[in-house]
UniProtKB/TrEMBL annotation:
Pathway: Amino-acid biosynthesis; L-serine biosynthesis; L-serine from 3-phospho-D-glycerate: step 2/3; Cofactor biosynthesis; pyridoxine 5'-phosphate biosynthesis; pyridoxine 5'-phosphate from D-erythrose 4-phosphate: step 3/5. It comes from Polynucleobacter duraquae. Catalyzes the reversible conversion of 3-phosphohydroxypyruvate to phosphoserine and of 3-hydroxy-2-oxo-4-phosphonooxybutanoate to phosphohydroxythreonine. GO terms for biological process: L-serine biosynthetic process; pyridoxine biosynthetic process. The modification N6-(pyridoxal phosphate)lysine is found at K202. It is found in: Cytoplasm. This is Phosphoserine aminotransferase. The keyword Electron transport does not apply. Its main location: cytoplasm. Pyridoxal 5'-phosphate binds at W108, T158, D178, Q201, N243, T244. InterPro entries: Aminotrans_V_dom, Pser_aminoTfrase, PyrdxlP-dep_Trfase, PyrdxlP-dep_Trfase_major, PyrdxlP-dep_Trfase_small. GO terms for molecular function: O-phospho-L-serine:2-oxoglutarate aminotransferase activity; pyridoxal phosphate binding.
Length: 365
């Protein structure tokens, strides 16, 4: 399938970006800031890039209301890189040897849990694996340890479409949140977690840069084996430029932040995200062909998973939606079915077009 226009792209990541952002990047591609070169071709230590970098951090600080007691790091290696970096940086804070607690609510938190086992004791405090990751275990069943350095959770499970409605209550223990797929989609109180992290490629910009927001007192306790590029204190001391940073990804993330500020910031986009998610879930709930299997209160606003009750229609559904310019609706292979990722940059019109298509498909089925 080839297109001569922009599609509605429901991919989970890399994901759709605002058209204005892409247009600005295109307009500046050959000559950025009158330097006669693109932003990709100039030194990360030059005054133009350094000024851009400061502005990118400031804009993120404004958008997420990040207090000065937190450092913002712009790293490489993705969310998966941080799955290793977090235990290496934080597990030594545990009182009886390296240890952390994990709330496993889907594929991503399970990966974090498995990776952490290499560095210390990873304790499974709760898991919804037996419920096929369609829910979040009841708070009363969580078995938090007394001697863990921190509790890890994934705020939005991108594959299952399961999202924590609030930051979980862990009796004041140190919390670490994977916000790869819902960063900047809703208002959060930064002070409720010690560390927030995620790659940019879902809700911000292209892949290549990983944002780590870390409370300053949590840095400087890393294991000796920690690679320097993932040692938060070393990165903080060098403006995340211990080595060459992903300059183009940082520039694009910056354009994404400016775009979001222009939309009215996180509060305004959260309202729109709710409207989009409600539209889609309300449609699914009244349909006799489609179903969402996630416990209602934990449904993701970003990744809406659904199944066709007649699975024989899956191939037709994908082929026809694709032909209509509604692209990348196939669910992750670990979950099956369908998934519509409706991040910040997906306009309401895209969700309306999807619902119209699905209604029509159901009528014809
Ligand atoms: C995509 C994703 C990851 C993995 O991110 P990478 O940048 O590819 O390493 C981790 N956690 C969640 C919740 C994700 O959605």
């Amino acid at each position: 399938m080839t297109f001569d226009r922009r599609i509605f792209n429901f991919a989970a990541g890399p994901a759709t970006l605002p058209e204005e952002v892409l247009k600005q990047a295109a307009a500046e591609m050959l000559n950025w800031q009158g330097l006669g070169a693109s932003v990709m071709e100039v030194s990360h230590r030059g005054k133009e890039f350094m000024a851009l970098y400061e502005e990118v951090l400031q804009d993120l600080r404004t958008l997420m209301e990040i207090p000065d007691s937190y450092e913002i790091l712009m790293l490489q290696g993705g969310g998966l890189g941080q799955n290793a970096a977090i235990p290496m940086n934080l597990m030594p804070l545990a009182k009886n040897g390296p240890k952390a607690d994990f709330l496993v609510t889907g594929v991503w938190s399970e990966k974090s849990y498995k990776e952490a086992e290499k560095y210390g004791v990873a304790h499974l405090a709760a898991s919804s694996a037996a419920e096929k990751f369609n829910t979040i275990p009841a708070r009363s069943t969580w078995q938090l340890s007394d001697d863990a350095a921190y509790v890890h959770y994934c705020a939005n499970e991108t594959i299952g479409g399961v999202e924590f409605p609030d930051v979980p209550d862990v009796n004041g223990k140190l919390l670490v949140a994977d916000i790869s797929s819902n960063i900047l989609s809703r208002e959060i109180d930064i002070t409720k977690c010690g560390v927030w992290f995620g790659g940019a490629q879902k809700n911000i910009g292209p892949s290549g840069v990983t944002i780590v927001i870390v409370r300053k007192d949590l840095m400087g306790h890393s294991m000796k084996i920690t690679p320097s590029i993932w040692d938060w204190s070393k990165q903080a001391a060098t403006d995340s430029m211990l080595n060459t940073p992903p300059t183009f990804s940082i520039y694009m993330a910056g354009l994404g932040f400016k775009w979001l500020l222009k939309q009215g910031g996180v509060k305004a986009i959260e309202k729109r995200n709710l409207e989009k998610a409600d539209l889609l879930y309300n449609f699914l709930d009244q349909s006799s062909l489609y179903e969402n299997r996630v416990t209602k209160e934990y449904r993701s606003r970003m990744n809406v998973t659904f199944f066709l009750k007649n699975e024989n229609l899956n191939a037709q559904f994908l082929e026809q939606s694709n032909a209509a310019g509604l692209v990348a609706l196939r669910g992750h292979k670990a979950a099956g079915g369908m998934r519509a990722s409706i991040y910040n940059a997906m306009p309401l019109e895209g969700v309306k077009a999807l619902v119209e298509f699905m209604r029509d498909f159901e009528r014809r089925a």
